[in-house]
Amino acid sequence: MLKKLVAVIAVLALLLALPALLSESMLNASVQMLIAALFATAFALLCGQAGMLSFGHAAYFGLGAFATVHAMNAFGGDGLLPTPLMPLAGAAIGLISGLGAGYFSTQRTGTYFAMITLALAELLHALAPHLKEVFGGEAGISSFRMPAWGFEFGSTIEIYYLVLGWTVLCIALLWGLTLTPFGRLVLGLRENSHRLKFLGYNTHALGTFVFALSAAFAGVAGALQALNIEAANYVVLETQVSTAVLLNTFIGGAKVFFGPAIGAAAMTFFGHVTSDLTRSWLLYQGIIFMLVMMYLPRGIVGEILARFRGEGGAVNPVAVLARFAGILVAAAGFVMAIELTQRFFSTDYKAARQAGGWPAVEFAGHMWAPFAPLTWALPIVLIAAGLGLVTFINRREARRQEAQI
Amino acid sequence: MEQIVFALLNGVIYGLLLFMVSAGLTLIFGMMGVLNFAHASFYMVGAYLAYTLQPVTGFWLAIILAPLLVAGLGIFVERFVLRRVHAYGHAHELLVTFGLSVVIAEVIKMFYGNFPVDYSVPSDLNFSAFALGGMEYPFYRLFMGGVAVVMFAVLYLMLTRTRVGIVVRAAIYRPRMVEALGHNVPMVFMAIFGIGAFLAGLAGAIAGAFYTTNPNMALELGVVVFVVVVVGGLGSMEGAMLASIIIGVMNSLAVGVNVSLADVLARVGLGDWARETGGILTLQLSSLAATLPFFLMLLVLLVRPSGLLGEKE
């Protein structure tokens, strides 16, 4: 417990000190990371703790964003609430829409539930362009932050602290929720809802309420996003938003409380860093997600925690390092193959070919010709070497464990 | 009058196409309990493969080869991806196929770009089948409907009249018993997955030429197919058929109707108020056509949560 407390305080101190350490653009990325972390944690309340897989959480995120923009524009721009309290508008609309959507979707469980959430989100996404007054059509709705409580809310630093405050508060609330009897009931809903029903609990009402809570916190995340960019567009209702939060949550580990937040922050960070380098970030994210689902079913954070608890036997640091090196080498080869393919099939390349011939493309500081053997041999050799190393270590470890028994 | 006939015909044919995709989905679900999120992606892959093969092999060979390749992809996915995560439960399988759909969409974008490709009906099939009241009806639509009907006749006969069909149906009903009787059930599952993928790929190869072929087609169709499956009742083939046709006809009829809630309210004298309020009250039904399936789904969930022909939970 003490260890946890120290860790939490250390992370908080680091987050508070960040504006002094980072550049403007990295601070902006940190704001995005915090929002993604809050969104993923809210999402995990539903899909990790209550075991209800939602494919349409963009709806509540987006509604929160639009509600906030409308609240900011209310009374001729004076705002419904002082700027720091704006996310309450997002929370309110998230809660209300979550109650409605949750009532329908929790009629069914499992796969049906997932399909209904997807359909509800698509319904909103299909309606939004037609409702110009509410969603602002193609252009979206913009607004600006009013000064309040002696702050201008003009600089990135001020908005960083605002977002940090809300994110920490909401994640703390969600954490507190897991400690209450209600939090235990939510876990019961995941593990055995039939039994809960037998014990006399109203599982439909419980499910609806969990859904609404999750939607409310997602709404806060959407509100923070709207405050950050001072606008909202119906793009936030698109499936990509739902997809991103789902991938982030499960890459981190949906059933560990801080897994989703860490996963979302890490993925957003990588997305930001690689956005200048690659156009295929979503592809990598999808592949990472599939690999995590296939080989690390508890998510990256979940598996690391399980190792710390001593599950799966003693850890041999040399083997772990060797595996890690093998994966890195294979990943390098794979990224190279993908990036080269992407460049050879891009529209830029088609334009370059108009001049005739098959020009080489630039990757990692070198030029690669499309039909040179080395261009394709190098990634293949890297992938084979990396995977070979991992397989070799796995076999050796398996033999060692057998010998011990 | 002619318009209504045409709209009905279009609707039924669109419904048949929907059924072609949802049949495989519901078959796989009934058998393995896996809702394959990537199923609509197979539809998209079918369209893109046919588009790629067409210049080399010609249209006819392309629409046969593309679904076969998609079936191969389906078998690969079942054998090496789904079977691996089977032990972690159904939610996990759903998530993996969801990840797969993301990866497939991104790979398609990588090779073909994030815009529609020029895959169109070959010119020797691009003629009108008949004319009614001065309007011509494209032959290709009838062709799509015909292929769908033939596929179903074959599938139905195979499932009900052959020995293989008996094993398959038994494997859906009692997989362990069938395994105990010495049949290779994982093999049957793999084959069914392949057939489902083949059907989706065929639908894509044929429909892609008529509708647009773009990287979003999987998602657009996928959502409707999931609605079909929920409305019809998961795992029920007849339900999927019924729901497909209903949604197809409903969609194509709604496109031609320019009525808004305000017009309805005008009948009871509230028209002016509704027009002033605006928003959802003045939206034309035709512009809402894309959202109608979702409303139907919500209605079905309220009235009959297990779907039109689904069994009670």
TrEMBL record, chain A:
<feature type="transmembrane region" description="Helical">
    <location>
        <begin position="85"/>
        <end position="104"/>
    </location>
</feature>
<feature type="transmembrane region" description="Helical">
    <location>
        <begin position="374"/>
        <end position="393"/>
    </location>
</feature>
<feature type="transmembrane region" description="Helical">
    <location>
        <begin position="159"/>
        <end position="182"/>
    </location>
</feature>
<dbReference type="GO" id="GO:0005886">
    <property type="term" value="C:plasma membrane"/>
</dbReference>
<keyword id="KW-0472">Membrane</keyword>
<feature type="transmembrane region" description="Helical">
    <location>
        <begin position="29"/>
        <end position="48"/>
    </location>
</feature>
<dbReference type="InterPro" id="IPR043428">
    <property type="entry name" value="LivM-like"/>
</dbReference>
<keyword id="KW-0812">Transmembrane</keyword>
<feature type="transmembrane region" description="Helical">
    <location>
        <begin position="281"/>
        <end position="297"/>
    </location>
</feature>
<feature type="transmembrane region" description="Helical">
    <location>
        <begin position="203"/>
        <end position="225"/>
    </location>
</feature>
<dbReference type="Pfam" id="PF02653">
    <property type="entry name" value="BPD_transp_2"/>
</dbReference>
<dbReference type="GO" id="GO:0015658">
    <property type="term" value="F:branched-chain amino acid transmembrane transporter activity"/>
</dbReference>
<protein>
    <submittedName>
        <fullName>Branched-chain amino acid ABC transporter permease</fullName>
    </submittedName>
</protein>
<keyword id="KW-1133">Transmembrane helix</keyword>
<feature type="transmembrane region" description="Helical">
    <location>
        <begin position="318"/>
        <end position="338"/>
    </location>
</feature>
<feature type="transmembrane region" description="Helical">
    <location>
        <begin position="55"/>
        <end position="73"/>
    </location>
</feature>
<dbReference type="InterPro" id="IPR001851">
    <property type="entry name" value="ABC_transp_permease"/>
</dbReference>
<keyword id="KW-1003">Cell membrane</keyword>
From TrEMBL, chain B:
<feature type="transmembrane region" description="Helical">
    <location>
        <begin position="139"/>
        <end position="159"/>
    </location>
</feature>
<dbReference type="GO" id="GO:0006865">
    <property type="term" value="P:amino acid transport"/>
</dbReference>
<dbReference type="GO" id="GO:0005886">
    <property type="term" value="C:plasma membrane"/>
</dbReference>
<keyword id="KW-1133">Transmembrane helix</keyword>
<dbReference type="InterPro" id="IPR001851">
    <property type="entry name" value="ABC_transp_permease"/>
</dbReference>
<keyword id="KW-0029">Amino-acid transport</keyword>
<feature type="transmembrane region" description="Helical">
    <location>
        <begin position="281"/>
        <end position="303"/>
    </location>
</feature>
<feature type="transmembrane region" description="Helical">
    <location>
        <begin position="242"/>
        <end position="261"/>
    </location>
</feature>
<keyword id="KW-0813">Transport</keyword>
<dbReference type="GO" id="GO:0022857">
    <property type="term" value="F:transmembrane transporter activity"/>
</dbReference>
<comment type="similarity">
    <text>Belongs to the binding-protein-dependent transport system permease family. LivHM subfamily.</text>
</comment>
<feature type="transmembrane region" description="Helical">
    <location>
        <begin position="58"/>
        <end position="82"/>
    </location>
</feature>
<feature type="transmembrane region" description="Helical">
    <location>
        <begin position="180"/>
        <end position="211"/>
    </location>
</feature>
<keyword id="KW-0472">Membrane</keyword>
<feature type="transmembrane region" description="Helical">
    <location>
        <begin position="217"/>
        <end position="235"/>
    </location>
</feature>
<dbReference type="Pfam" id="PF02653">
    <property type="entry name" value="BPD_transp_2"/>
</dbReference>
<keyword id="KW-1003">Cell membrane</keyword>
<feature type="transmembrane region" description="Helical">
    <location>
        <begin position="94"/>
        <end position="112"/>
    </location>
</feature>
<protein>
    <submittedName>
        <fullName>Branched-chain amino acid ABC transporter permease</fullName>
    </submittedName>
</protein>
<dbReference type="InterPro" id="IPR052157">
    <property type="entry name" value="BCAA_transport_permease"/>
</dbReference>
<keyword id="KW-0812">Transmembrane</keyword>
<feature type="transmembrane region" description="Helical">
    <location>
        <begin position="12"/>
        <end position="38"/>
    </location>
</feature>
